[in-house]
Amino acid sequence: MKKLSKIISAALCAAMLFSFASCSKDDNETSETTIDPSLIPTTVETEATAAETSVKITHTADEYKNAGVNELNSVPILMYHRVYGMTNAETSYTGGNVDVDGYNRTSEAFENDLRTYYEQGYRMMRLDDFVDGYIDVEFGYSPVILTFDDGIRDVVLEGWNADGSPIFDSTCAIGILEKIKGEYPDFNVTATFFVNESLFGNGEEDDRKVMKWMVDNGYDIGNHTRDHVKLGDLGADEIEKQVGAMYKKLDEIIPGQYVNIVALPFGSPESMGPDKPQFDRIFSGTYDGFAYTTKATLLCAWTRSYSPFVRDYNHTAIRRIRGYDNNGVDWDIQMNFEQLNNGKRYISDGDPDTIVFPASDNSSGDWLKNTFDHQVITY
Ligand SMILES: [Zn+2]
Predict the structure, then answer these.
(1) CA-based Rg of the chain, rounded to a whole angstrom?
(2) How far is CA 304 from CA 165, 341, 345, in A?
(3) I need a surface site. Which of 1, 85, 228, 357 has the fewest CB within 10 A?
(4) Which residues of the chain have pLDDT under 50?
(5) How far is the centre of ligand 1, averaged over its atoms, from the C-alpha of 201 (Å)?
(6) How far is the CA of 82 from the centre of ligand 1 (A)?
(7) Residue 373 lies in domain
(8) Are residues 265 and 321 in the same domain?
């Protein structure tokens, strides 16, 4: 969850050991200076009484080093599709794959994935916060982000409780996520579901109620276009219709509570630019009187995402990992996490308002690019 009040930290004595870099979001220039201890701010918190004043915990260089804190490293954003109530033994494909390409996953494999991420020190966060450069993960832990495309079968309803809340099949995606949420309160269970016009396939009336419940219970809903088409093949007006009609529908169902992010069907287009002005309509347009904007787009999958703070991160082509098994090759889950766990993973300093990393990781001076106005600390 995003924090609304920003606390300027005190207890920065340890920070004297470090050099700081400050970088404006607008000019992307990084300048490194060593801070004069006398200039280090004392605790400042607006709109708080003395009794409520918070003091941020800061860490020494050794603490950062021992925990391997590195917020320029990569983040796994999983791309799942549909979760089927099956065991792995019930499929004829590798591991927990339900189809030959592994786009769909058994409930057994999906639940095991979640437990593995948790045990390996990953904690969930919202994709929307990632896109905003706001990574709120406990010190020493790594973010993991879950996304689901296509909607159908991820929410399987068994009925409704007396209070109007939905009862989920225990083997659908949301049923498993809710179970894990109960078992691991510190996992911060969340996910973003990208839907088409058919939503979750339960009929519009039920899906409306479910989606309202979802956004009230820590899940996000995003745009996967109205008809699941390759936007790369379309002209500007058709793109506006596909993207705009889906936003309009989301805004009718959950006004202001969906995320302005598009998961590109088939990962198309793979690249955008000034030579392809039609793709600007993915990012802003007006369909049937409804004006929309998009702040990021997701590709189909193969590998981990860059940190949003680094030079090669591209908010129009955010990478994802396909949630499938292939015996540890061809960028399956195992291969990706082996690489992440071998020195590539983002490890948090516990403070979403600072960016901490070893100075050697930005020795070129241009790897850190987008600071989102956060304070930068190197060690
Ligand atoms: Zn899709």
Answers:
(1) 22
(2) 35, 12, 9
(3) 1
(4) 3-53
(5) 14
(6) 10
(7) 1-71+349-379
(8) yes
Q: Using the 8-state DSSP alphabet, how is residue 359 labeled?
A: G
Residue located via tokens 């970088």: 23
Q: Are residues 8 and 88 in the same domain?
A: no
Q: How far does the centroid of ligand 1 lie from the alpha carbon of residue 321, in Å? A: 14
Q: How far is the CA of 266 from the centre of ligand 1 (A)?
A: 6
229-260 pLDDT, tens digit each = 999 999 999 999 999 999 999 999 999 999 99
Q: Which two tokens stand for residue 195?
A: 């839907």
The identity of residue 371, as a single letter, is T
- Distance, in Å, from the CA atom of 77 to the CA atom of 127, rounded to the nearest integer, reads 8
Instruction: Mark whether 276 and 142 lie in a shared domain.
Output: yes
Summarize pLDDT for 265-309 with one digit per residue, the tens: 999 999 898 999 999 999 999 999 999 999 999 998 789 999 999
Residue pair 20/41 in contact by the 8 Å Cβ criterion: no
The pLDDT assigned to 310 comes to 98
Distance 322 CA to ligand 1 centre (A): 12
